[in-house]
Amino acid sequence: MSTTESGKTGEVSGDELGAAGSHLSTAPQEDRDPTLPRLGVIGWVRWFWRQLTSMRVALILLFLLSLGAIPGSLIPQSGVDEMKVQTFKDAHTTVAPVYDKLGLFHVYSSVWFSAIYILLFISLIGCIVPRTWQFVGQLRGRAPSAPKRFTHLPASATWRTDAEPEQVRAAALEILRKRRFRAHIAGDAVASEKGYLREAGNLIFHIALIVMLIAFAWGQLFKSEGGKLMVEGDGGFSNALPMYDDFKSGNLFSSDTDLTPFSFQLDKFDGTYERNGPNKGSPRVYRANVTYSVGATGKEQKTAIQVNDPLEIDGTKVYLNGHGYAPTVTVRDGRGKIVSRQAVPLLPIDSNVTSTGAIKVMDGYRDKNGKREQLGFNAFFVPTFAGSGKGNMFSQFPALDYPVLALSAYHGSLGVDSGIPQNVYQLDTSKMKKFTDSKGELLKTRLRPGETMKLPNGAGSITFDKDIKQWASFQITHQPGDGWALAGALAAIAGLAGSLFIQRRRVWVRATLGADGVTVVEMGGLGRSESSKVAEELGDLAAHLHEQAPSAADPRPAVPAEGAEK
């Protein structure tokens, strides 16, 4: 038995292999003939369609889509944070107009990004449809007949056997089918084929890309996302548009029908932190305990929302997004009457929850002369103060070990009556006057829980109460299509793996009677791409077939060795 392997698989021509070498690829015939059409407008349209639906152009468009998403990640987007966009424009007055004209502040809804997206979608569909039909046709067909000469194939083997040709073909058919080849007898040979899943994986990969594109578009059109900051024990949140602190949605989103009906409230926030070692200050427990109900009459249920462990209700997810402190302050007028008692959320500015904000008293306050005024306080809070003379006013640890509240006081008009929206965490002092101390400087002081700052001239007081509450911010998102996008991504990975690692190949076994009446067995293998596995697999198949159809004895007489005894 002898086995050979061709050194240059790619040089085997279709004329030499006949029908055996045809249709090894499911690529449309038009893709294999890149000749430019010369049929006027119709010809150019056909040429353009062939280019658009080619694999090369699909890969280029996919690369451009990935490239186009880069500025969407690096440059602030108007659909995500308008304030960041405006801040960027104010800080970069030269490039901002250029970015605006190029649509870089709204990349994913820009004309150029949408054009790439749509062209890629069309290209994938135009590439997949003809491939699918040709692949289905090949699945319904059979492996072609054996070529005339096996020596032109990448791997071949031949030997002579005393077994009858019919016995050899039957044995070969059984062996090939056990190895999951699709095999049948065609004339004096057995034709078989294996590795159809390679092309199936290729089609699955491209279909999965289309699913991902559709899921992405669906999610962008119907998505909704909003934020809500809640203080422990305060009023709850209902999933209605007016209840959000900020909200954005897709173009086809409808608040009347697409918002999932549910409500929840923050009962308590639990936070503990590492106190020693290199991870000092890192959260060990970071959990928001909430009570929620589904629908208008749903039963109240308790649960805990943690980082990467959201509350999920009918496709809407509630994520724990942030945490901070809300010192409770009580403001009294000059007569000692309480005009305001509130837990004021302050925004953290570092990992140790050093926080800043503003305390605003808009209604109910009168000065010593009975005149209506508004009060404002700039607030700076540290949960763990280092102590006087031990550095600046920054927290040393995120837990409430030594809380201190620093205040500076103003009176006048807060500017809220003009109807212009204000940042609740910033104090506009343009229409306010400073409360001053005995030296004529801005009145400011540091308070420990239970301490009071007196306002000058009998204007009242503000007390830092011992009840320090915590707040948590939540991100409420509804992103339809996420499940489809995930399924598409997994299918794309599986399909790509199949198209890369599965080898499509054909094997033929011919058994014919020689001129001397002895059966001649010929085997040949052909792969879609160069691979040593074709020769290895053919050798293994030949070894198994040789066991059932062993080589015939050599009819030539033995020649005695030189020097043998006569």
Secondary structure layout:
Layout: E1 2-5, H1 14-17, H2 29-32, H3 40-52, H4 55-74, H5 82-91, H6 95-102, H7 111-140, E2 155-161, H8 165-178, E3 182-186, E4 189-194, H9 196-222, E5 224-231, E6 237-238, E7 246-249, E8 262-273, E9 283-294, E10 301-306, E11 311-313, E12 316-332, E13 338-343, E14 347-348, E15 355-361, E16 374-382, E17 404-412, E18 432-434, E19 444-447, E20 452-455, E21 460-478, H10 482-501, E22 505-513, E23 519-527, H11 533-548
Antiparallel strand pairs: 1-2, 2-23, 3-4, 4-22, 5-7, 5-21, 6-8, 8-9, 9-10, 11-12, 12-13, 12-21, 14-15, 15-16, 16-17, 17-18, 17-19, 20-21, 22-23
How would you portray this structure in words?
This protein is an alpha+beta fold and 566 residues long. The chain contains eleven helices and 23 strands. The protein has helices at 14-17, 29-32, 40-52, 55-74, 82-91, 95-102, 111-140, 165-178, 196-222, 482-501, 533-548, and strands at residues 2-5, 155-161, 182-186, 189-194, 224-231, 237-238, 246-249, 262-273, 283-294, 301-306, 311-313, 316-332, 338-343, 347-348, 355-361, 374-382, 404-412, 432-434, 444-447, 452-455, 460-478, 505-513, 519-527. The strands form four sheets. Strands 5, 7, 11, 12, 13, 20 and 21 form a seven-stranded antiparallel sheet that branches. A hairpin with a 2-residue loop joins β3 (182-186) and β4. α8 crosses α11 and α9 (196-222) packs antiparallel against α10 (482-501). Mean pLDDT is 85; it is low at 7-14, 20-32 and 558-566.
